Amino acid sequence: MNYTDASSSVEVINEACAVESLDRRWYLVAVCGTSLSVLSIVSNMLISKVLLSSKHNHFYFLALLALSDCFLSLNYGPVIAMDIIKDRLKLRWLSNLYIQYVGPLLALSQTSMTFSCYLIILATIERYLITLRAKCLGTFRKCRGLAAFSMFLLSLMLRAPIIFEMQIEQNPDCIGEISEYYLNLSPIVNTFWYGTVYRFYIRNIMTVLVPFVLLAILNYKIVKILRMQQRSAQMFRFLSSDHKTKIRSATILMVCIVFSYLLANILNVGVTLWEYVAFQSTQTGDAYAFYETCTDVTSVLYILVCATRLFVYYLFNQEIREAIKPLVCHSASAPRKQDYVTVTRSFDSSRQIGTEIDAVAIAIARRLLSSELVFGGAGGTKDTNDSFVISNHHTGDDDDDDNDDTDDDDDEIPHMV
C-alpha cells in the first residue's frame, strides 16, 4: 500500500464522517421554526394567564391546552432546532450533548402533543353538553380535573415509550469526529407486538384516527343543535342575533379545529405509512431528501398550529376575545348593553309550564281560543303585570334565573367555545 492509497482511504473516511448542513433545513427548521416557537410561547403564556384566573374557570381545558402548547414550544428548540444547529456549528461537544438528552425530551414533546389533542376533545365534549343543555354537564365539570389527568396518563402510555425506541451507537470509522456517536432504532422496534401492534396500529389509531373522528362528529352535532335552536327562536320572533353569532362561531371553530388537526397530522400519517411499508427506501438516494423534508415540514406545522391558536380564538370566538382584550389593551372594555324584547302573556307569571318558549306558545294559544288577542286595535288592553322580559343575549342558552334557580351550569353556557 503506497502513500496515494493511504491518503485516498483517509479522504473516504473523512467524507463518510462529514456532517452536511443544508441551507434549506437551516432556514426552515432552525430560523423559521424557532421564531414560531418563541411566538407560540408568548401567545400561550398570555392565554394561560387569562384563562387560569378564577373568573374564567369555564375555560379550564383551553387553559390547560395553552400550558401544554407552551411546554411543547419550549422543547422545540432543544429537540428539533438543535439537531440542525449542531450540524451547522460542527461542535463535537454540542453533538454529544444533544444525543444524550434528545431521547427523554422527544418522548415528553410527543406526550405533550398528544395531551393537547385530547384536551381539545375534552373541550369539545364540554361544548357539546352545554349546547345540548345536558343534565350531566354539572357532573362533567366537577370531574374536569380527573378527566384531564386521565388523558395525560393515556398520553404518557402512548408516547413515553419512545424513549426506549432509540439507542446510542458508535461509528468506529469516525472516532474523534463530530459524527462518532449517532442515534439508531433499538431492536424492540423490530418486534411484532411492540413494533407492529403497539407502535404502528395502537399508537396511530389512538393519536390520529380517533381524535379526528370524535372532533368531526361532536362539532357537527353542535352546529346542528344550534341551528335547531335558531329556528325555534325565529318561530316566536325572538331576536336571534346571539344565536347566529353562536352558530357562526361554532362552525368556524369546527373548521379551525379539524383543519389545524389535519394540517399538523396528515403529513405525519403519510410519513408513518411510508416508514411501515418501506422503511429502507426512506434512507437511500433522492427518497431520503424528500423524506427528510417531510419530517421537517411536519415539525414546523405542529409549532405553527400552536403559535396561531391564540389568533384563531381571538378572531373567531367572542368569549375568548372579550377575556383576552382587557389584558392586551390594559383596560377592560365597557360591558355591552343588552337588548331586550318584551313578550306579553295572559296567564299568571308565577306559574311556569315547560320552558319559556313553551310558555309563550301556551299563552298565544289561550288568547287565540278566547278571542282576546288584538293587534293594534282599540279595546286591546294589556296587563302590565303579565309581561316578562327575555334577554336576547341569553336566548336559547340560559334559563331564567327566577324560574330555575337549581341549574347553576346554565349561567356559564355562553362561555365555552
TrEMBL record:
Record key words, sorted: Membrane, Transmembrane, Transmembrane helix
Parts of the chain that traverse the membrane: 26-47, 59-81, 101-125, 146-164, 200-220, 252-277, 297-316
PANTHER family, per the entry: G-PROTEIN COUPLED RECEPTORS FAMILY 1 PROFILE DOMAIN-CONTAINING PROTEIN, PROTEIN CBG23488-RELATED
Domain G-protein coupled receptors family 1 profile as annotated: residue spans: 33-313
Region (Disordered): 386-417
CDD domains listed in its UniProt record: 7tmA_FMRFamide_R-like
GO molecular function, one term: G protein-coupled receptor activity
Acidic residues bias: start-end ranges: 397-417
InterPro entries linked: GPCR_Rhodpsn (IPR000276), GPCR_Rhodpsn_7TM (IPR017452)
Subcellular location: Membrane
Cellular component terms per the entry's GO annotation: membrane
Protein name from the UniProt record: G-protein coupled receptors family 1 profile domain-containing protein
